[in-house]
């Protein structure tokens, strides 16, 4: 049924937001998945939560625009197509740039829609008529416009700077794309002799091969051990160059000898030191990671091989003092996991500090709010320590940088349209920069470029700023902060009012999911096995703010069980509903313009009024929870209403009228049952869209309208407090009797005798049939006599409830059951007591474990004492009936 209903929604245009729609606008943009991607659990979670919000707002009467699209994913996509070429025995260099880019577009047309198809299978109600791609013509125009404006403002500039370089991908990476990961390296201590032969300094390093690019040795200016030597020259080991001993405060006096090698071309701190002191920048690396001619005899070697050779030669020359194991962290490419090399390279940069201030200010002013608020600290930390963003990438796939270098004067012309001559000297010898922009540059424009910027479109006017962004904490830096900066700079307003950071999904034991562990759950397989609604409900129900999700088979089975419960309730309702029930209409809810529609008909019984009162309360609590992004609370509210109040209570109570002889009562109950079920379907629809639509369309009176068109039912008249209390009493009394039956292990169908005080006469007159049917009791007796020895006594609903236990067979069975229970409890109690009496256990176990055992001992002791008391009472009663 899933594909059938999804196609029907698309055909009706229910996901499309028209600028002519008079309803209030509400919008959000999808975090564009990589065009190379396929649906994983993170996608399933985030897009389900966004769909819940979108469908919820549609049901509330909003003109909802959920903007979809995909990201061109520069490095990832180029790698995929290069691998495809490699399998065919070719390379992109052999193809040439133009043919390679055409090949990528061909791949995108063939394979790039996979994740969009999977998002549709998940039920995502995106406005697919507006689907965008970060390299389509409109967005490409926006990218050029932004680049040119920022360049004219002096925020984009070109400079030679030390960057993170991936030898495998042959491109520069930002700090965010080069996460540090632990490696088991070594720390080498090397002697650097003074040129005059008077001693040497010992230098410690984890990268001995980089000494080939050293241009100085540095000490701290306040380090008295070395102050008198500053200015002297040292002999660079192996290559023999003379390098100076300099003083700079970046040196850590406590590390090693207090002297460090300075390699400005291959270390960030050394680069800054070299700039301050005017040291030469020596590059020893080719872009592919091999050493170049500046490495002398080591030219042509890969870094790892060069390290082995350099260490061996240092040892042979007597310059290696020693080495030891030294675990440390080094940057790796987050795409191919290659060790990243620091490299001086001429790149395009975006100066971020002027943009960061306003982005922090709007969050402090709560013009944009984070949910949970704790993630504001992460956001602020990055912006407060922001560095220039290297925005150029040495790739062929992506937005080519709109800058042309003049062959005459050498200056750059930056323009939105391809220029015919240099803007500086007028020459026509122009060559466009070979580089492309970082993928995140175009993604940063997503909230306004997708709506048509730089044109002043009706969509941009209506839907910007968006209401909420739902995303993961790992791209707060990559994306959230950058969208905020760009939105404020170019639109003059925040791109979204709220930022919801969704939880992470782990396995049932709380471990991170990974293919190597074999604990990855494929959402496509889950949707096939359990149904999409079960997966969606499970993910929503577990999405508590600030807590990771532990997901296993048991949770998924629970989601499926809930869908089944709803299905079975609907089957019962449909068997008991007549076509054309007066006062009942499945289409009741909101009108075409979103205005509330009053509930028709007036239900006849207290039970009817009570369930609609509970529906109104559940809807109000659901609205409040979703408005606060407390998705799990919304799921819990609806679970309690549907499973507990609608299925376990109202449907059972409704059977009295449906199976009775009073036509008016039957008709009123039918009307209420349909209204309550339709309301429950509307409430659940954002979470479980397919099964709710299937059931809704089977109800009488649908008139061909879909749930999204129907809207939420408007609340009815409030239920008076006395009636609420009376229903609470009824539920409590029935639950009390059921609890006693459960404790006795009484089989279904066996009725027990119940006595209530005479003050409950009116209560019994009104609800006697309900008590008999739902609690499986004989007609309740009224008496104020003290309870007999064989009666179970409980306080419920303001009454003293006595359940007679004078059947010897029941009593004997219960005594035997309680004796077994007591034996088990005493055995467990003795085992725990033994542990607590063991001095070695108390001394060695952690305090929390000892405390847990003590709590367990108290709990078992109290439970055993309660069983003993029940046994004594039942044995006495059994003797009295013998």
Number of helices: 28
What percent of residues are in strands?
15-25%
**SS elements, strand count:** 29
Return the average pLDDT rounded to an integer.
90
Which spans of ≥5 residues are poorly predicted at pLDDT below 50?
590-598
Helix content: 40-55%
End-to-end span in angstroms?
62 Å
The main pleated sheet reads as: 4 strands, antiparallel
The structure class reads alpha/beta
Shape: globular
Q: What would you report as the Rg, rounded to the nearest angstrom?
A: 37 Å
Give a description of the structure.
There is one protein chain. With 882 residues, the protein is of the alpha/beta class. Helix content is 45%, strand content 16%. It is built from 28 helices and 29 strands. The strands form ten sheets. The chain has a four-stranded antiparallel β-sheet. Helix 17 (532-541) packs across helix 18 and helix 20 (631-658) runs antiparallel to helix 21 (663-684). The longest helix is centred in the C-terminal third of the chain and has 35 residues, at 847-881. The protein is globular. The chain starts with a helix and ends with a helix. Mean pLDDT is 90; it is low at 590-598.
List the main descriptive attributes of the protein structure presented here.
882 residues; alpha/beta; 4-stranded antiparallel sheet; 28 helices; 16% strand
Kindly summarize this structure in a few lines.
With 882 residues, the protein is α/β, with parallel strands linked by helices.
């Amino acid at each position: 049924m899933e594909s059938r209903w999804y196609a029907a929604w698309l055909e009706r245009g229910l996901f499309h937001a028209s600028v002519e729609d008079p309803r209030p606008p509400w919008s959000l943009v999808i975090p564009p998945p990589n065009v190379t991607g396929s649906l994983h659990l993170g996608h399933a979670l985030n897009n389900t939560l966004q769909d819940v919000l979108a469908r919820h707002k549609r049901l509330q009467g909003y003109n909802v625009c959920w903007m979809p699209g995909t990201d061109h994913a520069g490095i990832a996509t180029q790698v995929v197509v290069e691998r495809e070429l490699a399998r065919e025995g070719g390379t992109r260099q052999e193809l040439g740039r133009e043919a390679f880019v055409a090949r990528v577009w061909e791949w995108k047309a063939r394979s790039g829609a996979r994740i969009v198809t999977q998002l549709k299978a998940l039920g995502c109600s995106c406005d697919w008529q507006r689907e965008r791609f970060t390299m389509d013509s409109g967005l490409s125009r926006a990218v050029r416009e932004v680049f040119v404006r920022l360049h004219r403002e002096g925020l984009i500039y070109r400079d030679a700077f030390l960057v993170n370089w991936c030898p495998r991908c042959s491109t520069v990476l930002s700090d965010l794309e080069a996460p540090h990961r632990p490696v088991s390296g070594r720390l080498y201590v090397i002697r650097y002799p003074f040129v005059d032969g008077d001693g040497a300094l010992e230098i410690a390093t984890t990268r001995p091969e980089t000494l080939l690019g050293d241009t100085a040795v540095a000490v701290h200016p306040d380090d008295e051990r070395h102050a008198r030597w500053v200015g002297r020259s040292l002999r660079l080991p192996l290559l023999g160059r003379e390098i100076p001993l300099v003083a700079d405060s970046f040196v850590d006096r406590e590390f090693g000898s207090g002297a460090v090698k300075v390699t400005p071309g291959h270390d960030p701190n050394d680069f800054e030191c070299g700039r301050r002191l005017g040291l030469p920048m020596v590059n020893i690396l080719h872009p592919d990671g091999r050493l170049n001619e500046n490495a002398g005899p080591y030219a042509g070697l890969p870094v790892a091989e060069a390290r082995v050779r350099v260490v061996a030669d240092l040892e042979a020359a007597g310059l290696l003092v020693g080495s030891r194991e030294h675990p440390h962290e080094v940057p790796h490419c987050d795409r191919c996991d290659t060790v990243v090399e620091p490299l001086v390279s001429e790149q395009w940069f975006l100066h971020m500090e002027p943009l960061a201030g306003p982005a922090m200010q709007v969050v402090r002013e709560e013009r944009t709010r984070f949910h949970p608020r704790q993630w504001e600290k992460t956001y602020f930390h990055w912006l407060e320590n922001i560095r220039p963003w290297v925005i150029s990438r040495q790739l062929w796939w992506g937005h080519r940088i709109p800058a042309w270098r003049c062959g005459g004067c050498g200056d750059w012309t930056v323009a939105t349209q391809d220029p015919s001559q240099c803007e500086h000297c007028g020459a026509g010898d122009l060559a466009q920069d070979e580089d492309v922009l970082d993928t995140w540059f175009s993604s940063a424009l997503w909230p306004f470029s997708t709506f048509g910027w730089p044109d002043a479109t009706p969509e941009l006017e209506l839907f910007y700023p968006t209401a909420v962004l739902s995303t993961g904490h790992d791209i707060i830096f990559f994306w959230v902060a950058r969208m905020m900066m760009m939105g404020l700079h170019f639109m003059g307003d925040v791109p979204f009012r709220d930022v919801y950071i969704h939880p992470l999904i782990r396995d049932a034991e709380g471990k991170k999911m990974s293919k190597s562990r074999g604990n990855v759950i494929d959402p496509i397989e889950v949707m096939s096995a359990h149904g999409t609604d079960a997966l969606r409900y499970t993910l929503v129900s577990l999405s508590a703010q600030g807590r990771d999700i532990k997901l296993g088979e048991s949770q998924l089975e629970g989601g499926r069980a809930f869908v089944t419960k709803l299905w079975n309730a609907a089957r019962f309702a449909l068997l008991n509903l007549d076509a054309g029930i007066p006062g009942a209409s499945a289409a009741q809810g909101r009108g075409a313009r979103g205005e509330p529609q009053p509930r028709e008909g007036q239900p006849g019984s207290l039970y009817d009024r009570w369930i609609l009162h509970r529906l109104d309360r559940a809807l109000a609590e659901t609205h409040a929870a979703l408005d606060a992004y407390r998705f799990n609370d919304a799921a819990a509210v609806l679970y309690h209403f549907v499973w507990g109040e609608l299925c376990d209570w109202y449907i059972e109570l409704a059977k009295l009228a449906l199976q009775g002889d009073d036509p008016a009562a039957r008709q009123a109950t039918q009307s209420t049952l349909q209204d309550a079920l339709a309301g429950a379907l509307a409430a659940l629809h954002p979470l479980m869209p397919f099964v709710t639509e299937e059931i809704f369309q089977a109800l009488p009176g649908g008139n061909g309208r879909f749930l999204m068109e129907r809207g939420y039912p408007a609340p009815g008249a409030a239920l008076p407090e006395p009636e609420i209390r009376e229903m609470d009493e009824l539920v409590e009394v029935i639950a009390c009797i059921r609890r006693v039956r459960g404790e006795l292990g009484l089989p279904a169908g066996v009725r027990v005798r119940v006595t209530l005080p005479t003050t409950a006469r009116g209560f019994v007159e009104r609800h006697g049939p309900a008590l008999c049917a739902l609690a499986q009791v004989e007609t309740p007796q009224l008496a104020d006599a003290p309870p007999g020895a064989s009666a179970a006594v409980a306080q419920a609903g303001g009454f003293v409830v006595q359940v007679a236990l004078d059947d010897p067979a029941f009593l004997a069975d219960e005594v035997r059951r309680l004796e077994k229970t007591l034996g088990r409890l005493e055995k467990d109690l003795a085992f725990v007591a033994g542990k607590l009496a063991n001095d070695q256990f108390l001394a060695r176990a952690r305090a929390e474990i000892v405390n847990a055992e003590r709590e367990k001992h108290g709990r078992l002791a109290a439970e055993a004492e309660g069983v003993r008391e029940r046994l004594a009472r039942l044995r006495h009663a059994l003797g009295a009936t013998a």
